[in-house]
Amino acid sequence: MSGSGEPAAEAPAATGAGVRIVVEYCKPCGFESAYLELENAVKEEFPDVEIESRLGGTGAFEIEINGQLIFSKLENGGFPYEKDLIEAIRKAGNGEPLEKITKSRPPCVIL
């Protein structure tokens, strides 16, 4: 409870310390810009998070947090909403269980 004199448990979540993100994406598909946008948004919110990119197969934009797949464009058909990813990182920083992100932004369609 308050007044226990112990440090707040939420400190790691504020910076993202101890959270590792791997984003696997399809570079020939043009998804590098989506990765860079995501990387900038994550680093702005969580400066100490470790984020790594890997080249993936056709249509891939897969996101792992601490080794757990939490988003798959191959399954969802679009890109994750930034707020959902930020919330997942916050949970990981607090040691809470992660849930897979199932909502996604529809991919751009040019008619």
Descriptive notes:
It is found in: Cell membrane; Cytoplasm, Cytosol. Interacts with GPX1. Keywords: Acetylation, Apoptosis, Cell membrane, Cytoplasm, Disulfide bond, Lipoprotein, Membrane, Prenylation, Redox-active center. This is Migration and invasion enhancer 1. It is a lipid-anchor. The protein has 111 residues and is α+β, with helices and mostly antiparallel strands. The protein has a domain at 17-84: Glutaredoxin. Helix content is 32%, strand content 20%. The chain has four helices and four strands; from the N terminus they run H-E-H-E-E-E-H-H. The protein has helices spanning 11-15, 32-45, 73-76, 82-93, and strands at 20-25, 50-55, 61-65, 68-72. The chain has a four-stranded mixed beta sheet with strand order 2-1-3-4. The chain is globular and about 35 Å long.
| Top-tier CATH class of the domain at 17-84 | Alpha Beta
Q: Which band does the percent of strand residues land in?
A: 15-25%
Extract low-pLDDT stretches. Answer: 6-13
CATH superfamily name of the domain at 17-84? Glutaredoxin
CATH topology of the domain at 17-84: Glutaredoxin
The main sheet orders its strands as 2-1-3-4
How many β-strand runs?
Answer: 4
**Chain-averaged pLDDT:** 87
Order of helices and strands: HEHEEEHH
What characteristic shape results from the CA principal axes? globular
Q: What kind of sheet is the major sheet?
A: 4 strands, mixed
Q: What portion of residues is helical? A: 25-40%
Rg over C-alpha atoms, rounded to the nearest angstrom = 15 Å
Per CATH, the architecture of the domain at 17-84 is: 3-Layer(aba) Sandwich
- What is the CA–CA distance across the termini? 58 Å
Task: Enumerate how many helices there are, as a single number.
Answer: 4
Structural class call reads alpha+beta
